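Hi everyone, sorry if this is the wrong subforum. Our group has a chain we'd like a structural model of before ordering constructs, and none of us has done structure prediction before. Sequence below.
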Amino acid sequence: MDRALESLRDLCDAGLTDPAEGRLEEVARAFRIRLTPQMVAASDDPSVARQFVPTLDELEIRPEELADPIGDAARSPVPGITHRYPDRVILHVTRTCDVYCRFCFRREVVGSEGILPEADLSAALDYIDATPSVREVILTGGDPLTLSPRRLRAIIGRLGQIGHLDQVRIHSRVPVVAPHRIDDNMLRALLGPIPVWIVVHVNHPGELRLDARAALGRLADRGIPLLSQSVLLRGVNDTVDTLEELFRALLRLRVKPYYLHHCDLAKGAGHFRTTIDEGRALMAELRRRITGIGLPSYVLDLPGGFGKVPLTHDHLIAEGPGRWQVRDPQGGLHPYADPD
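Answer:
Right subforum, don't worry. Here is the predicted structure as tokens:
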């Protein structure tokens, strides 16, 4: 396989879907399909395939599921910017990804707009420049590393001219799902006038094939700090053995596990969600098994744009089986319910 799969016909030809499941066309119309050759190869593991291959489960939209589950739009002062915390902003540089994950919390917008237009990018940079409380810019999308090295170098260079910034953080799946992009040109683009941190999105050890490991090695060898984020997904990585294997593999690759996200309330993604108690039990067992540097923070991104919180006693009030009040960083309380 030397090209990405982008349709149900492609998936059928690759043996990843059953052509008899006619209603899959409805799923494909609701959210696009794309698997890189690397993830096609990794999809011999059902836990990897489940992340990318559409299923009829996505047609079940639950009342609590949202088009914008973490409130990007509610905290957007100018196009392309989400400003949720005083000292950092998200800069949405592109809506394009190399793969489209079936649980994506931005599934309503990714792939629809492409690169942030230059006028919007300039306005976003002006906003950052005029807001001295902002110390960190987080490039996201879509996936920033789908940009050309030339364009990425230009954005990092412009950010490096803003004196009150300390660093740039890039969240990306590219080193794992399209590792060929991490070439010398991309590495040079990342080594700009401001420190760049990479947060690699990886959910299952089966994604870390040899070429992905080599790409992460190239980044680490250039001195680029590497963190990881994973989403806790039912049927993918919701066992302690799988998470332990993943986090140990990342440590060997010089990647610090950073976040384990509780699955967001994206439309059609309810079948991926675990309960909070299940996630907390997994974290408790991981603490007994692995070194502290291998433990990510288990977090919930509160619906409505109220920010990420660690799922610990400080932030949770149990109201009954599967029902919680969650305390945001400002002390406000928000109801949250586990899936049935």
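For your construct planning: DSSP finds eleven helices and twelve strands in the chain. Residues 24 and 56 are 6 Å apart (CA to CA).
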